[in-house]
Amino acid sequence: MCSLSYSQSIEGVWNTGKENTTIEIKNGEGKIYSSDNQKATKGKLMIKEIQKTNNTYKGKLYIIKKKRWVDAEFIPNGNSLNVTVSAGWRSKTLKWNLVE
Known about the structure:
Order of helices and strands: EEEEEEEE
Largest sheet: 8 strands, antiparallel, barrel
Helix content: under 10%
Number of helices: 0
Low-confidence stretches: 1-6
Mean pLDDT: 89
Structural class: mainly beta
Shape: globular
Number of strands: 8
Strand order of the largest sheet: 1-2-3-4-5-6-7-8
């Protein structure tokens, strides 16, 4: 079992695991840093309204396919970030890896 650090930040460049897409999180928001997807626009806002609560962060994540913002929870765990997306009664957890 891993322990979470209360001081661990989510700032950095994270690989989402899809099409080599990376998102840079800083200053309370996340933007596309790079991607192999031709339709992904560098600098596009993907995460907003990030607020720290104890050892987790909550905010809004933009779902491109659905063209809408959904609630998300970001839990740092060393060099990975567990991203739980909630839409209605469904939720899904993704694992992003730290690039830099």
